[in-house]
Structures
1.
Amino acid sequence: MRTGVALGSNVGDRLQNLRAARTALTAIACPPILSSRIYETDAVGGAPDASPFLNSVVEFEFAGLPATLLLELQRIEAELGRPSKRPRNAPRTIDLDILYFGNLAFATDEIMIPHPRLHLRRFVLAPLADVRPDLILPGQQETVAELLAKLPPTPGAAIFAESF
C-alpha cells in the first residue's frame, strides 16, 4: 500500500538525522520511493526558543499493516536516539509520523490514519506537495496542493535542500 511518512529533526545534525532515517526506511520500503525537498521551519507548539526543524516527506510501498509500520518507525526513532518517553513537542533527533496509508481512515489508541492535523500544517503539506500534489487524502475533498494553497503564509519556512 502506498504510504506517506513525515520526517522531522531539530536536534544535532538535522540533515544527517533525516538522511539516516531515510536510509533506514529504505530497508522496510518497497520501491518506488519518492522523496520531497527538505524544508526548514520554525518549531510548532514547542518552547519559544526551540531550534528550527528540518522536514521532509517520503512515500513508498509498504507490504505490512499500519501497526507494523508504526512499530518499525518507532524502532528507527529509537535507533537514531529518540527516547520513547518524552514531553509532548520536546526537541528530537528524529520524528517519524505516518501521514497516510493508502486510502485507509481509522483510529486506535496508538495510531490515527490519516494524521489528524496533516491538512492544517504547512510543514507537512509543502513537502507532501513535492511528491503527491494531486493526492486527495481520506476525509478531504481537495488535493494536497489545494489544501496547501489555502493555508496562510508561514514566516520562518524555507527550502533548505533540494534532496537528501
2.
Amino acid sequence: MTISKAAFMLLFAALAANAQTARTPPDLAWLAGCWELKIPERKMTVTEHWMTPAGGTMIGMSRTVTDGKTTAFEFLRIIEREGTTIYIAKPSQNNEETEFKLTAHDKTSATFENPSHDFPQLIRYTRTNNDLQARAEATRNNTTRGFELEFKRINCP
C-alpha cells in the first residue's frame, strides 16, 4: 500500500504541529541526575533518578531499600499540559497517580502543590551544589506536618 504525497504532507503537518505543543518543563534540568540518601541506623538507602528533559517530559523514579530489600518505589513524571507544569507521582502503595501543579520555581528549586490531596499536598525540591533536598508536607487542622530528605549526587549506574 502506498501513501499519496498529499496524505504524507498532511500527516507530516499534523506531527509537526503536535511536536510544537509538547514543551519541556521550564528550567528544571537542574533536577536531572542520580541522588542518594543513606540512613545507616535504619539500614536504609533511598535513591532518586531523574532523566534530563526531552520530548516535553522529565521521567524519574525512586527506590527505598531497607536491610537489603526493596520496601518502596515510585514512578515520577514532570510534564507540560495546557501551559501548566504537572508533577505526576505513582508510589508503589497506590493504585492511582497523583498530580501536583508547579506553583513556584527558579534556577535551583521547584514547588508543586495539590491542596486536595491527603499527603503530601506540597512537594518541593531545592538543589545546592551536589545536594538535593526534597520536602513533602500537608496541612490539616491548621497544623503543617512533613519531612525532608537530604540527597547527595551520585554517579548514575
3.
Amino acid sequence: AKLKGSAQLATVSIEHYTNNGKKLSVKLKGVNDRNAAEELTGAQIHVSTQQLEALQSDEFYWHQLMGLTVINHDEQVLGVVKELMETGANDVLVVEHEQTRALTAVPWLPDVVISTDLEAGVLRVDWRLDDEDE
C-alpha cells in the first residue's frame, strides 16, 4: 500500500475479505480500529499479478485490456483502450483514437465485443464510429 500523503510504501497482509461481486471488504492484519483504518483512506493498493485469481477464458482483468487496439467489424481502427468505467448497466471501454485523440465509449456487452486477443493486443468490436452514417 502507498500511504496517503507520502511516497512511503508498506507491505500489508489481508486477515480476511468478502466479495459480493459489487463490493470488496478487506480486514488488514494490524488494523484493528476505526482510527487505524482511517489512516489508510485514499491509500493506493498494489497487487502483483501472481496474486490475482485465475480467470475463465472469457474473463479479463481491466489492466489486461488497457492499451489494446480496438478494431471494428469494418476493419477500422477505433483507437486504443485508454480507460474503463463502471456504469450501472455494464462496463464501458473508453477508446482514444491515436491521431485525433477523439474518445469513443464502447459498452462491454456480449453483442458488441466480438473477440479479445491479448497476445495480438487486439479487441474486435461490432461498433461504428460516431461520425458514420447509419
4.
Amino acid sequence: SELTNAPWVGGTWVRTETGYYLVRITRRWMTYPEGRRAVASEYEWCCAHLAPPHALLIEDKSTGSSLLQELGDQTSMPLLAILPEKDKVTRLGIESPAIEAGNVWLPESAEWLSDFEREIANFPNASTADQGDMLSMTLKHFREGGASAGPRLRSLY
C-alpha cells in the first residue's frame, strides 16, 4: 500500500477556562492501515493519560471519509466528521484572533514543537500546511462551542 501524498496529522488538545492547550502532535507519512492503527493508538494514549476524548475530529475527505466509515463501524470512538470550508489560508485567518489573543498554548518543549512552530510561522508558504489546517479546524470547533461537555479533544487531519 502506498503512502499518502500528505502526512497524517493528529493533535491532542485540552480546553480550559484560560485557553486551548496543544498537548501532543503525531505527524508522519503513513499508509492507510498504519494511519488507522495510529488513530487507535493515539486514542488509547489519550484515554490512559488524560481522559476519553470528547470527540475525534476527522476531515471528511478522501482517506478521512474511509477512516470515519471504518472506525464508525468497528469502534465506539466519538467520531466527528469535519467538512472544511473555503481554502486553508482563509480558514486559519478566520481563527487567528484566538491565537492573537493568547488563547492557544503550547508546551515549553516537545519533540514536535519546532516543526509545528516553523510550519505555522511560514504558513501558507511552508512545504506542508497540514498542521496549520489541523490548528484552524480545531479552533473553529472550539469557537463554535465544541467540547462543551468535556475539555478533551483529539483532532486528526
